[in-house]
Write a structure and sequence with these properties.
Helices cover 39% and strands 21% of the residues. It is α/β, with parallel strands linked by helices. A seven-stranded mixed β-sheet has the order 14-17-18-13-12-20-21, with helices on both faces. The longest helix has 21 residues, at 99-119. The protein starts with a helix and ends in an 8-residue tail after the last strand.
């Protein structure tokens, strides 16, 4: 596909060029195995070139009137709107996203771009009082300088844009490394959008590479002051460790093991709809997905029957078909891992109400129940179409089970009494929880992030200002200070 081959390059200092590495990252369509592009990897030297280009370009950009920075972002939004059909097709082809998922991702991407446009004008300084006579304390909000962004494969366009656009709006330069499975949608496509929007060279650089080639260069390099990483908690811990050793700030958006709780007074039909979407959207490859669906025993039988029937009706197949609801997992390794996990869990005593099978990278949905309380699968993130149904007796047990996980990202509570739901939600140790809704939500101005092993820091809205700027104190002594010597 010419769309992919045209963008199959490194983008460094405003130039499209092949990587100098000795091997290629091959970009495959996960549904049919079609080779979309071949990209020679960037070397550590090229990562250095990208960071140095960003460093050279950043100060002039920070000095640029924020209204002018806003204009570039406005153009980027118009370009995304104009090219939306093309971008949707790219998402379908590169990551196996269904048309529903691609539309959802593009809708959010445009909303986040609109917020980034406003963010350019958001930073505000302060004048603070001083105990010293005649002293004026000015506190400025200034860009951190250069931001390194590492994005995942599941929502690559959105989750790259989510850090890149605010960082640029606030006067920073960026070096972006997309996931190896989505180098175009998560990387060079953004570079093309911003290049066409008139972003000056050097402010956004995209390096398509792998840790096998560059090691920790992206993290250890002296130029970036902040690293924004979205991905697994295992890799996130490594990112945090390396950045701490190099005194860099991090924003970590990591995995989840969210619980959707159905209380005894819930609207069961509505809860079923919310749970099915929350578990199976994008084949379950969502950090906020409802891994565990906790159901009060008073409504367990009714909920289970309706839930299994709805899941069984989902259409599994070619993501290019608008009727498809479950497309492929991102690669064969992930498909095999999910299938093996289901088999092992059933062998360990769980009951499969639906036992999904793999056909290439397509994995049909599974629904498991009767899990032993110590089942390892209850503690982990499942990045695939597998739902775990867990019964409980009363709110206290629901809260205990929901909190019995190392993660704390999202969640949901379904109830006929909103304030009851809020009270339960307040007891769940997560960064986000939703009453009478699904678990998969993201909004441009609401703080997004998790607790425990689900990450550090927040993104969105004012949190972006905290993440990508720093404070500078300049004092002015209008009189004369008295010194002790």
């Amino acid at each position: 596909m010419s769309f992919f081959t045209d963008l199959a390059h490194q983008y460094i200092d405003g130039e499209w060029r092949p990587g100098k590495g000795s091997w290629d990252i091959i970009d495959f369509n996960p549904f049919n195995g079609e080779k979309l592009a071949s990209i020679p990897v960037a070397t550590a030297e090229e990562v250095d070139q990208a960071y140095r280009a960003a460093e050279r370009a950043q100060q002039a950009w920070a000095d640029t009137n924020p209204y002018a920075r806003r204009t570039v972002l406005e153009k980027a939004l118009r370009i995304v709107e104009e090219r939306e059909p093309e971008i949707v097709e790219a998402i379908v082809a590169e990551l196996g996203g269904t048309h529903l998922k691609a539309g959802f991702e593009l809708h959010l991407a445009k909303e986040f771009l609109r917020e980034a446009i406003q963010l350019a004008l958001r930073p505000a300084g302060q004048i603070l009082p001083s105990p010293t006579e005649g002293k004026e304390n000015r506190v400025y909000r200034v860009p951190v300088g250069v931001v390194g962004v590492i994005s995942p494969f599941n929502f690559p366009f959105l989750l790259s844009l989510k850090s890149v656009a605010p960082a640029l709006a606030l006067g920073n330069a960026v070096v972006l490394k997309p996931h190896q499975n989505t180098p175009i949608c998560g990387g060079t496509l953004l570079a093309k959008v911003f290049e066409d929007a008139g972003l000056p060279a050097g402010l956004l650089n995209v390096v398509v590479t792998d840790i096998a080639e560059i090691g920790d260069t992206l993290l250890e390099h002296p130029v970036p002051q902040v690293i924004s990483f979205t991905g697994s908690d295992k890799v996130g811990r490594h990112v945090a460790t390396v950045c701490a050793a190099n005194l860099k700030r991090v924003v970590l958006e990591l995995g989840g093991n969210s619980a959707l709780i159905v209380l005894d007074d819930a609207d069961v039909d509505y809860a079923v709809d919310a749970a099915v979407f929350s578990r199976y959207v994008h084949q379950g490859q969502v950090c906020m997905a409802a891994n565990r669906i906790l159901v009060d025993r008073a409504v367990e039988a009714e909920f289970t029957e309706k839930f299994v029937a709805k899941v069984a009706s989902l259409t599994v197949g070619d993501p290019a078909d608008p009727a498809t609801q479950i497309g492929p997992l991102i690669n064969s390794s992930q498909a095999e891992s999910v299938s093996r996990l289901v088999d092992e869990t059933v062998e360990s005593g769980a009951t499969a109400l639906l036992h999904g099978r793999a056909d290439g990278n397509l994995v049909s949905p599974s629904v498991l129940t009767g899990l032993p309380a110590d089942s390892p699968v209850l503690q982990q993130e499942i990045f695939g179409p597998v739902a775990l149904l867990v019964p409980f007796d009363g709110e206290d047990e629901a809260v205990r089970i929901a909190n019995d996980t190392p993660y704390g990202l999202s969640g949901a509570v379904h109830t006929g009494n909103i304030e009851r739901g809020v009270r339960v939600g307040q007891r769940i140790h997560t960064g986000m929880i939703h009453i009478n809704d699904g678990t998969v939500h993201d909004e441009p101005i609401v703080p997004f992030g998790g607790e425990k092993s689900s990450g550090l820091g927040r993104l969105n809205g004012e949190s972006m200002v905290e993440a990508f700027t720093t404070q500078k104190w300049i004092s002015v002594q209008h009189g004369r200070s008295r010194f002790p010597f």
